[in-house]
Structures are given as structure tokens and as C-alpha cells.
Amino acid sequence: MSAGLAQIQAEHGYRGNIVEIGVYHGKYLTGLATTLLDGEKAIAIDVFDDQSKNADLVGYDEVGSSGIHDLTQQAFLDNAKRYCPNADIAVIQRSSLEVRPEDILSHGDKVRFFSIDGGHTLDVLLNDLHLAVATLAPHGIISIDDILNPQWPGIITGVVRFFDGETNLRPVAFVSNKLLCAFEPFANFYRKALLDIAPQAIQRRDVEFSNYTADQYQDGDEYDRFLASING
User: Over the Cα atoms of the chain, what is R_g?
Assistant: First the structure.
């Protein structure tokens, strides 16, 4: 459903770059990049070949995710060329702990869609979330991966801690093990947009989360039909 929301942003003229921390082979980022408007960029932040900087490496090996060792920047670029050949792609091959807001903002626009799928420890998650907030456009969306993954409890610990503080960011919806968030008042706009995209995919409304509520979705046929309509 993330690509659906990114497409709605484009249709409403809500401009900005698209960023992902932790792109792996680029499946999620290239999907989002298909919605880029003229002058917008997709920015990939990842250590890629330099896995010595990956704080999660031991954890990945413990859970059997050996494919992380095969990750290369070239593999991502090959996929980007295949799935979003017209997209303007920028790569920051660095640990997100070494990335500053100006490194992202130097590419022109603020960010309209920021995906966080990098390190899974509490400290790295909070670093990435603060980086996303610092670069996000007022109409932007933040997607946090593995929010309910029991293998990586640092994610939900960090997100709850973040929302327990003072912030204008609000949870919008749980979708496919991701938490989508946006600033007020756009959070309500995106809630309604998700209902328009896939009304049959919603499981529960107003699920309690930290000091707020969010809707809960599962992927469904209506979302697949929506994607087919914008791609074909």
C-alpha cells in the first residue's frame, strides 16, 4: 500500500524526494520510485558491500538471513535499472549513523516518503527516525519496517519511546509489518486515502499504539487492483 500512497502524493502535487535507509536489493525503494515526478530523486542509503559497518550482521546470521552477505550496490542499481529505468537514483553508501540531514537535503527537496529499514537496534532506529523527521516535508510519510517483528524488538521499543516524547508525528496505519506515520494534519488525510485504496483490507480501526491510535491493514485484492490500474 506504500506505493499507492506515494502515487496519491504525486497526484496531489505533494512533491519531494523518496529515501530509504537499508535498501537491500531495492524492491521497496524501486516500487516507490515508480511514482517519482520530474525533478524528484530516489535516495538509497545503505552500507551495501561494506557489511563490516552493519551492526545487525551477527543478528542476521543468527536468524539465518545469510543473503545479507551477497548485498552489493551493483545488485541494487541493476534492479533499479530494470524496475524504474527512468528514475533519478542517488546512492549514499554509508552507515546511517554517519548520515546528516544536510546529506539528504543537498539533493534538492525535502522528503515526501522516507522508508526506515536499516539497523534494528534501539539506538540505530532512533537515529534513523530522527533523521527522517528532520528531512521530512510537511506532507511526508515515514515507513518503519519490522515494527511487529519479534526477532527485532529494538524497533518497537524505539518507536514507542519516540512517540512517548514530544512530536508532531503521528502513527497512521500498520501495513505488512510496517508502521506508516505522518505529521498532523496530514496523518488523517493519509488514513482516509488508505481507506479509499483498500477498504476491504482494513482489519481494525483505531488500534491503540503508544499515546495514539492507528488503523490496521492486511494486503488484499482491492490493493492489487489499484496497483494494476496505476501501472497499466
Answer: 17
Q: Note the pLDDT of residue 52.
A: 61
pTM to 2 decimals? 0.88
The mean pLDDT of 161-182, rounded to a whole number, is: 96
Place of cell 552489493: 72
> Is the model's pLDDT at 65 over the cut of 60?
no
pLDDT of residue 61: 46
Range name among 41-55, 80-94, 127-141 with the lowest pLDDT average = 41-55
* 185: three-class secondary structure by DSSP: coil
Kindly state the average pLDDT of the residues 52-67. 51
Question: Is residue 230 exposed (0-12), middle (13-18) or buried (19+ Cβ within 10 Å)?
Answer: middle
Helix boundaries (H) for the chain = 2-11, 27-33, 57-62, 73-83, 101-105, 122-135, 153-164, 186-197, 221-231
Distance CA(153)–CA(11), nearest Å, equals 36
Q: Which domains does the chain have, with CATH numbers?
A: 2-231 (3.40.50.150)
* Sign of the torsion formed by the C-alpha atoms of 26, 42, 228 and 7: positive
Provide the 8-state DSSP code for 88: -
DSSP 28-82: HHHHHHTTPPTT--EEEEE-TT-GGG-TTHHHHHHTT-GGGGG--HHHHHHHHHH
What DSSP designation does 109 have? S
Phi and psi angles of residue 14, each rounded to the nearest 5 degrees, phi first: -85, 90
Cα 226 → chain centroid: 20
